[in-house]
């Protein structure tokens, strides 16, 4: 891959990974509610799950979905329904950390990795990245390179949002502020669906 294309790929990966979307908003909320350390499995799950999604799209799943638009539409709406459920869980959190709602916990590594498969923004990003930056003459190598670039860009992008959330923990320890924050995050999470589900 030429240096100019690689730089463009890194910029695209950072812009799409760091801008607000379902993953970043959930990481911000998790940073506030559970802190940075307890959110690390969530962050790593996003990176590994999206890496797997990118590889599958690059090696043929993207082409299959183009031929089966009903399946793609079903994935988008399943992801949307799950996001609404996650938004509801965030909105209902009323205190920081383990002392909150019974059973409240950060998203696990496996849950975060699996979520990428129903995350509408992740699908849009994966298909766009593979269509734009892979080389049909070197499909295997370019697909792996695109996936690895996203993996290594995802980790710092996820960390930024989680750190921001963790920095707000003390200020949001007041129950009213936390309630407003969590409801706002839930609303933004649902609103983030609109461009992807249109």
In words, what does this structure look like?
By secondary structure, this protein is an all-alpha fold. The protein has one domain (40-92, 106-197). The chain is 79% helix and 0% strand. It contains 9 helices and no strands. It has helices spanning 3-18, 22-34, 36-67, 69-92, 109-115, 120-133, 139-167, 175-191, 193-197. Helix 1 runs parallel beside helix 7, helix 2 runs parallel beside helix 7 (139-167) and helix 3 (36-67) runs antiparallel to helix 7 (139-167). The two termini are 34 Å apart. The model has no long low-confidence stretch (mean pLDDT 86).
Give the SSE layout.
Elements: H1 3-18, H2 22-34, H3 36-67, H4 69-92, H5 109-115, H6 120-133, H7 139-167, H8 175-191, H9 193-197
Helix pairs in contact: 1-7, 2-3, 2-7, 2-8, 3-5, 3-6, 3-7, 4-8
Task: Throw out a few tags for this protein.
single chain; 0% strand; mainly alpha
Annotation field: number of helices: 9
**How much helix, percentage-wise, in residues?**
over 70%
Whole-number count of domains: 1
Based on secondary structure, the structural category is mainly alpha
Average predicted confidence as pLDDT: 86
Low-confidence stretches: none
Main β sheet profile = none
List SSEs in N-to-C order.
Answer: HHHHHHHHH
Number of strands: 0
**Radius of gyration, whole Å:** 17 Å
Quaternary form = single chain
Tell me the β content.
under 5%
């Amino acid at each position: 891959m030429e240096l100019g294309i690689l730089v463009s790929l890194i910029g695209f990966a950072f812009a799409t990974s760091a801008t607000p979307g379902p993953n970043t908003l959930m990481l911000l909320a998790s940073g506030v509610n559970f802190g940075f350390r307890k959110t690390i499995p969530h962050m790593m799950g996003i990176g590994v799950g999206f890496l797997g999604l990118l590889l599958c799209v690059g090696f043929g799943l993207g082409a299959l979905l183009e031929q089966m638009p009903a399946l793609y539409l079903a994935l988008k709406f399943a992801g949307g329904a799950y996001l609404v459920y996650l938004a509801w869980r965030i909105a209902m959190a009323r205190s920081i950390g383990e002392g909150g709602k019974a059973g409240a916990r950060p998203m696990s590594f496996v849950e975060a990795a699996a979520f990428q498969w129903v995350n509408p923004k992740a699908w849009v990003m994966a298909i766009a990245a593979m269509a734009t930056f892979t080389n049909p003459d070197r499909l295997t190598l370019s697909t792996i390179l695109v996936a690895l670039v996203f993996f290594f860009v995802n980790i710092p992008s996820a960390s930024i949002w989680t750190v921001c959330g963790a920095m707000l923990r003390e200020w949001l320890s007041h129950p009213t502020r936390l309630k407003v924050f969590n409801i706002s995050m839930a609303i933004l999470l649902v609103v983030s669906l609109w461009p992807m589900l249109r």
